[in-house]
Automatic annotation (TrEMBL):
Belongs to the glycosyltransferase 2 family. It holds the Pfam family Glycos_transf_2. Residues 8-126 form the Glycosyltransferase 2-like domain. Keywords: Glycosyltransferase, Transferase. The keyword Transferase applies. The keyword Transferase applies. PANTHER family: GLYCOSYLTRANSFERASE, GLYCOSYLTRANSFERASE EPSE-RELATED. InterPro entries: Glyco_trans_2-like (IPR001173), Glycosyltransf_2 (IPR050834), Nucleotide-diphossugar_trans (IPR029044). This is Glycosyltransferase family 2 protein.
């Protein structure tokens, strides 16, 4: 059983003065937290001061600042490098932990990565007292590489529920022994890419359905916006992983599906960028010159045009547990349901 105060909580933050205090306070409230490292990633607001304002004077909070924005991957790598705790947990600056999260995650020690359920909460629901999160049965299971990649291929008309959203606690010794860090050229899918490489190296990724992480849904969230270039870099990251000749046929097949999935999104976004920037003729010429991209562009445009006629399909969360402004990533059974 891991000892108390064994976790470093890493928070990469940029222009997060409105939310960083809540995130830091929730991390410091966990008795297993040994360090909280905030990386102010080139903010132009008072992010650092807002983080410092909730310091509990326990000596666990450390705030570092990048003068220029370098992205979440670089910020997280810097925090990992300057910390020493045996376990590492990522917390986005918009989000917060449910009390008791780490105690539930550390109840078992047979893992290299361990994650729990996520509650997605609309910002309006957390302006006062956050909604109560039920106690769920943990239903522990291991995630293998193929199911993890498959779980990150989204489908149109289905409410997003990719398991790449999960925020596992990571064992530092596994990262160090396998020389694993975030790819700093990625600003989209940097978590997914790291976890895929870890699973390819034999990581034991344990998942429990108890809910300990609250992701706040904000219309202006930096994590909700990405550039067309970010999509290109993500599918190229899949290609780099596919260059590993030791991968099984099943792994290669699912990684290729994910690569095609992301590449199709890129082709549609690039087509629309050309249309908006250089005009319809330039966009059409681009599509006609790339027959392999033409199907992705055509199907993407058709899907966009018809999306308003489709009702999103509920997946993941148990339907009756969802409420306005609150939903869960994974299906879950409340403890109260079996009492």
């Amino acid at each position: 059983m891991p000892q108390i105060q064994a976790i470093c909580v890493v928070i990469a933050a940029r222009n997060a003065s409105a939310t960083i205090g809540r995130a830091v306070a929730s991390a410091l409230a966990e008795p297993e937290t040994a360090e909280v490292v905030v990386i102010d990633d080139g903010s132009t607001d008072t992010t650092s001061a807002a983080a410092k304002a909730v310091d509990d004077d326990s000596g666990r909070l450390r705030i570092l600042r990048f003068e220029k924005n370098r992205g979440p991957a670089a910020a997280r790598n810097a925090a990992i490098a300057c910390s020493s705790s045996p376990f590492i947990a990522i917390l986005d600056a918009d989000d917060f932990f449910v009390p008791g999260r780490f105690g539930r995650l550390l109840a078992d020690n047979e893992w290299d990565f361990v994650a729990d359920n996520i509650a997605f909460i609309e910002e309006s629901r957390v302006t006062g007292a956050p909604p109560a999160i039920p106690e769920f049965h943990p239903q522990p299971r291991l995630i293998d590489l193929e199911s993890f990649v498959e779980g990150n291929i989204s489908r149109r008309g289905v409410r997003r529920g990719e398991i790449g959203f999960l925020k596992p606690v990571m064992r530092r010794a596994f990262l160090e022994s396998n020389e694993l860090r975030y790819r700093e050229d990625l600003r989209l899918g940097e978590d997914y890419e790291l976890y895929v490489r870890a699973l390819a190296k034999g990581a034991r990724y344990r998942l429990i359905h108890a809910c300990g992480y609250c992701a706040v849904v904000r219309s202006d969230s930096l994590s909700g916006r990405h550039r067309t270039e970010d999509l290109r870099r993500l599918y190229e990251a899949d290609r780099a992983i596919l260059a590993d000749s030791s991968l099984s046929e099943a792994t290669v097949a699912v990684l290729r599906r994910h690569e095609r999935h992301i590449r199709a999104k890129y082709e549609l976004r690039h087509f629309l960028d050309l249309k908006n920037g250089s005009g319809p003729l330039a966009a059409i010429r681009y599509a006609l010159a790339r027959p392999a991209a033409l199907a992705a562009i055509g199907s993407g445009i058709l899907a966009d045009k018809t999306e308003r006629f489709r009702r999103p399909v509920r997946t993941g969360a148990t339907a009756h547990l969802d409420s306005p402004g609150l939903r869960y990533l994974l299906s879950a059974v409340p403890v109260s349901a079996q009492r």
